[in-house]
């Protein structure tokens, strides 16, 4: 199935989201996401889990897209919104708020009042994977969704890759939507920046607890990458380097 090129971005994204949430293509991931919902930690006991694939969300007219790895078993898999209801999301949305890309600093669940302003957040894989590690086959099976998502965001000019997995997925998505990747292939790093096709790809360490608790990623470090994303998104095309 291909998106209708005549659909407006919001309508195309809505149709794609409905398709994503119905997906059961990866048996291992289906089993894992449903098992996580059936056996939650004590702090979430009694909650109704989403336990389905999680679509991207945000401003359909965005110039900035953020790409993570996958929903967390008790974050996006619980709430139904990517980077929502876990510590990674707490760190990320506080930074988006400081950057002027979100109207509030917290992201707890759909309906919490959070709105993204000039940003769209998505993931390379839509189901929570065991050990946060999808297999190559699962990654590749899910890849068309982010390719189509990027194609449905025609105003996007900056992609912020949250970690090396997001970086690789973003490169493949840009190539799939008509952008030629430089050779040699750009390597991920915190603060890495490369113009690929119509967009500039920026890298940052993933806002996982493993990185934020150890100081590998600090608020100032993420703020600097987001400030650069805002600068690039606002610059005239001829000024991009």
Structure write-up:
- This protein is of the alpha/beta class and 241 residues long.
- Helices cover 37% and strands 11% of the residues.
- It starts with 8 loop residues before the first helix and ends in a 7-residue tail after the last helix.
- The radius of gyration is 17 Å and the shape is globular.
- It has helices spanning 9-21, 27-38, 76-79, 87-98, 136-151, 164-176, 209-212, 219-234; strands at 57-58, 64-68, 119-123, 158-162, 193-196, 199-204.
- It has a six-stranded mixed sheet with strand order 1-3-2-4-6-5, with helices on both faces.
- The protein has one domain (9-236): Uracil-DNA Glycosylase, subunit E (3-Layer(aba) Sandwich).
- The mean pLDDT is 94.
């Amino acid at each position: 199935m291909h998106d209708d090129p005549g659909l407006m971005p919001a309508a195309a994204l809505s149709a794609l989201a409905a398709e994503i949430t119905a997906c059961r293509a990866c048996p291992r991931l289906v089993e894992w996401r449903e098992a996580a919902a059936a056996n939650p930690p004590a702090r979430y006991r009694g909650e109704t889990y989403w336990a389905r694939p999680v679509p991207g969300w945000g401003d359909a007219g965005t110039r900035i897209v953020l790409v993570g790895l996958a929903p967390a078993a008790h974050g996006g898999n619980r709430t139904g919104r990517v980077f929502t209801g876990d510590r990674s999301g707490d760190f990320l949305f506080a930074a988006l708020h400081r950057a002027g890309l979100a109207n509030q600093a917290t992201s707890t669940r759909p309906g919490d009042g959070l709105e993204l302003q000039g940003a769209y957040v998505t993931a390379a894989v839509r189901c929570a994977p065991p050990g946060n590690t999808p297999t190559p086959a699962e990654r590749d099976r899910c890849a068309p969704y982010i390719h189509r998502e990027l194609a449905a965001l025609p105003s996007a000019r900056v992609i912020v890759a949250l970690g090396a997995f997001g970086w690789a997925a973003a490169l493949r998505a840009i190539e799939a939507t008509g952008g030629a990747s430089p050779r040699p292939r750009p390597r991920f790093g915190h603060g890495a920046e490369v113009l690929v096709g119509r967009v500039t790809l920026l890298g940052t360490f993933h806002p996982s607890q493993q990185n934020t608790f150890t100081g590998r990623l600090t608020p100032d470090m993420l703020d600097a990458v987001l400030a650069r994303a805002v600068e690039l998104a606002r610059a005239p095309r001829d000024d991009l380097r």
